[in-house]
Amino acid sequence: MSRLATPDRTAPGVRLLVVEDEPKVAGALREGLEGEGYTVVVESSGEGAFFRLATEHDRFDAILLDLTLPGRDGLEVLAELRRQGIGTPVVVLTARDTLDDRVIGLDAGADDYLIKPFAFAELLARLRAVGRRGRAVDADRVSLDTLSLDRATREVTRAGQPIELTAKEFDLLHYLARHIRQVVSRDTLAREVWRETARSTTLDNVIDVHISRLRRKIDLGHPVALIQTVRGVGFVLRGDAG
Fold first, then answer.
1. Which of 182, 173, 183, 186 is nearest to 142 (CA)?
2. Structure confidence by residue, pLDDT tens digits, 196-207
């Protein structure tokens, strides 16, 4: 379990990067979080945050990321981190409150999305939640429920039974596993798994066929369906109904 799961005033070493360009907001976040036992580092620009994360990402347990930043936009920073396989949990803090904005933020790789202004207690709860969920981006082996995936050998088992996948089916499952419990859109799958710069009806159909085949191979005959559809958004690998 991540150290984020049970932060308190006696749990030193839980490190957060706060990326916020408003000094008063950044100062309030630092004061409140340090009062809860977190170690807080603040960056005020997208460029500064990206440089720090590119060199020190393994030193942080989570990132609080504002989207409207001077220089590099927060979404650009987030998307580039995920493209580089940096899986540190990210909670987006933003005044952008439309459904489309939330979908875009989650699709770029955010683990959670908090609309300003927010209650500090809710922020703490969101941090605990992303700590419990964790991420599997950098794991050589991914396990969920009775599913096991080995990136090095490209072997997949469910309840101890080997599952034969095509190369593309494995790539698709592996991408979902790298973003475990995170909804992944067809746009992202088209770009990251099929290496296509734009979606099309034909490609959408291909993606749906591969998802259907994976479901038959991974979930058929098992009490828990791991590959789930979030209507109107995309697909997610998780072991519960929500």
1. 173
2. 877 788 889 999
